[in-house]
Design goal:
about 55% helix; alpha/beta; Rossmann fold; 19 helices; 2 domains; seven-stranded parallel β-sheet
């Protein structure tokens, strides 16, 4: 078989969702590691008054593309923005653009989707199911198409505890659902949504399952593969460690913990945190297209599914995530933290609710009260409310574990040359979690919050100040408890003196033992 860069040589590639987190990493990696690729066509819609060309120009000016810019100064010439809207009939493509894509595209990467977990069902179906259907219809018309890659999610079938690399039967017939939603008003759809999604936690996983089924049923003679990543996080190695550009998923939670806002969260310490670095997902995706495209004449026409996960190969648990976050942000704190980082994961919902009230809601109300008294605009309670909504969305995934079959991923790796395994590395057995988590946390600091590392000494000083304030507050609280409760009760005083005496004896014993050793 040809190598991966050789396969992409002279090929025209179409990418949907190229302005999203995974899409832009895919675009960068493809251009950098497969420099002989002919062109990359990217479907982009007008947004906030910006034309597709302007949006792409803005996107490729970010730090993610620095390495590519250094190696290939003219890389932008290979990016062809195409004005399109996936929610519109025929993808809102002009006749000329349609013909161009039909005549020249060799490989399609369909990455576009809404990643809002609780998107209204109608909107989720529009973006995740109908848009996929339109892309499949367009793919059938492409004269040179070799492979169609559909990016799904490992949680599309999260109602199963063991998830194989197969397309599961859909929860409903997607055609009937589309017809039904067409005549229903939004209020009625909202009422029936919980019944429809059943054991799945949200409309995102539900519609992604429908999209997989649609791809299988409507692909016909197309050469199709499906990539299922789990929780996509910051980059592991490429183009540099820790790159992340958004607050989505765990990133926003990490930042809230680093700022000292997040103190408690519902999660099982022993549950597997199936984080997967974005560059691992992209390398798997590019390799999957290479394998299916290279084998299109010899391999049986079946939809290959790749569970791009880490839990079964190199498990990492939420309790370990908690430890890494606290340690990293105490050593390398975020600027202007409100409290010292100290997030605690709690599996018991009642205990978590108690600590949510004590350590989130009450401090937020007090802080907003202080802001009002000083003539400032209150904002903390609004932030806490948003944080709680984000945590509720993630709660299902932080409280459960799944077993994923990854035989196809292993097979794909075995087919690659030693050089390709280095350049397109997705062997997560090599992933060192503590190092990755430190880079991830630092990535949120550098690339999401745009905080310079030169500000670390001041941030550490601020954190020490917060620690001193906490110690002072705790001391005052203890004195008040003594004055109000203990000093007035003989029994309480006796207990108090006993505890203090015990502590004093322990310290004396420890000091004596230390002296004898020396």
């Amino acid at each position: 078989m040809v190598t991966i860069p050789e396969y992409y040589e002279g090929k025209n590639v179409l990418i949907t969702g190229a302005t999203g987190f995974m899409g832009k990493v895919l675009l960068e990696k493809l251009l950098r590691s497969c420099p002989a690729v002919k062109a990359t066509y990217v479907l982009v819609r007008h947004k906030a008054g910006q034309a597709p060309n302007a949006r792409i120009a803005d996107m490729i000016s970010c730090k993610l593309f620095d390495k590519l810019r250094e190696e290939q100064p003219n890389f932008a010439e290979k990016i062809v923005p195409v004005s399109s809207d996936l929610t519109q009939p025929e993808l809102d493509l002009s006749g000329e653009d349609q013909q161009t894509l039909i005549d020249c595209i060799n490989i399609v990467f369909h990455c576009a989707a809404t990643i809002r977990f609780n998107e209204p069902l109608k909107d989720a179906v529009q973006l995740n199911v109908l848009a996929t259907q339109k892309m499949v219809v367009l793919a059938h018309r492409m004269k040179q198409l070799e492979v169609f890659i559909h990016v799904s999610t490992a949680y599309a079938n999260c109602d199963h505890s063991l998830i194989e690399e197969v397309v599961y039967p859909p929860p409903v017939d997607y055609k009937k659902l589309i017809d039904t939603l067409d005549w229903m008003d939004d209020k009625l759809v909202s009422l029936i949504t919980p019944k429809l999604i059943g054991d799945r936690p949200n409309t995102y996983t539900y519609t992604k399952a429908l999209a997989e089924s649609l791809v299988q049923q409507e692909c016909g003679n197309l050469n199709v593969a499906i990539i299922r990543p789990s929780i996509v996080g910051a980059s592991w190695k490429e183009p540099f460690p820790g790159w992340i550009d958004n607050f989505n998923g765990p990133s926003g939670i990490f930042i809230a913990a680093g700022k000292g806002i997040l103190r408690t969260m519902r999660a099982s310490n022993s549950a597997v945190a199936d984080l997967v670095p974005v560059d691992v997902v992209i390398n798997t995706t590019l390799a999957a297209a290479w394998y299916s495209g290279s084998q299109r004449y010899t391999r049986p026409k079946t939809v290959l599914v790749y569970n791009c996960t880490t839990g079964g190969i190199n498990p990492f648990h939420w309790g370990e995530v908690e430890y890494c976050i606290n340690m990293t942000f105490k050593t390398n704190p975020l600027e202007q933290a409100l409290r010292r980082p100290n997030v605690n994961l709690r599996s018991n919902p009642f205990t978590n609710q108690y600590w949510t009230t004590v350590s989130h809601t009450l401090p937020a109300l007090l802080y907003d009260g202080y802001l009002r008294l000083t003539g400032q605009k209150p904002w903390m309670m609004k932030t806490i409310t948003r944080l709680h909504k984000a945590m509720m969305v993630l709660e299902y995934f932080t409280s459960h574990s799944w077993v994923w079959n990854t035989d196809n991923v292993a097979m794909l790796m075995s087919q690659m040359s030693p050089e390709d395994k280095k350049v397109f590395n997705f062997d997560v057995r090599q992933l060192h979690w503590a190092e990755y988590m430190e880079n991830y946390c630092m990535g949120t600091k550098k690339y999401v919050l745009n905080e310079e590392l030169s500000g670390l000494p001041a941030a550490r000083k601020h954190l020490n100040k917060l620690r001193n304030i906490r110690y002072t507050f705790n001391t005052i609280l203890m004195v008040l408890i003594w004055r109000v409760f203990i000093a007035r009760s003989q029994m309480a005083r006796n207990i108090w003196y006993f505890v203090v005496s015990l502590c004093f004896k322990f310290l004396s014993y420890f000091r004596a033992s230390s002296t004898l050793r020396h």
